[in-house]
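1st attempt posting a full record on here, be nice pls
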Amino acid sequence: MSFYYLNKEMGLALNDILGRVCSYNKDFSREDISITWINYKIENKIVFKGFGSGINNKKMIYPASVVKLVYGLAAYYWIKKGRLLLSDEIIDAVRKMLSFSSNNATSFLIDLLTGTTSGPCIEGELWENWKYQRSIINDWLNDLNWDELIGINCCQKTWDDGPFGREKEFYGFENKNRNAMTTDSAARVLEEIMIHIDYQKNDLNLRSFLKRNLHKDFLKKDFFNQIDGFLGAGLPESINLWSKAGLMSEVRHDSAWWINSNSLQTLLVVFCNGEKYSKDTSFLPLIAKEVYKFNKRYIYY
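the predicted structure (as tokens):
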């Protein structure tokens, strides 16, 4: 059973939105694009089960830095279960991973979560144990029993230049062991972070690390702001937004949550697979702008 109700009207609207946005550039193709769009009604501060639609939303795609949502959530639960002790260093690493998309912080956290380290290639029992340990995050995801997480792979570090040594070997032949997620799986993880965790004073507050400032003066000071060229760039400056983007030479992705009004909030995840999207800064803002406009016009019951 899906974690959100399917909404026919939103499905028709999403198809129309994607068709219009793709028409602006002959290189855009819906086959390269995956979307999960969910709206949430709010009454008396209670967030009800979402309703929405998707396109290619169960298609496995390399998630780039969107996978850091998974690693942040894993760190939160490791601490809750006593597998990790909360420290200033861990808080700083998770903040830098989510707020600034630091690959160095991500590498440090994956080492802590799995008890592995990068390094030269190893063989025999050492190598088998290393691979077993690195798969611990996938085992945890399977144990959550969330249907939308079935088949995803979140066991690799993220890189500036690429993996070397045992990390490269762990990618497998033709990178078959590369990270892979769907927009539905990214949406489910972001939903967990945003509305299903009752953060306490001394918790690892993942939600606070995803908060974004949309004011243009602020964005000018931060070249790597995860807004310009992403979903947030299509929203009004006054919007409250939480997001995590992913960008590399072959993809441009974003996962975002924003508040439309006191009674309606939106979760939107868009994966764009291909070099042409990696270089394009217009597509994701256009999608967000159209979704926002639709939500302003319609009332859901």
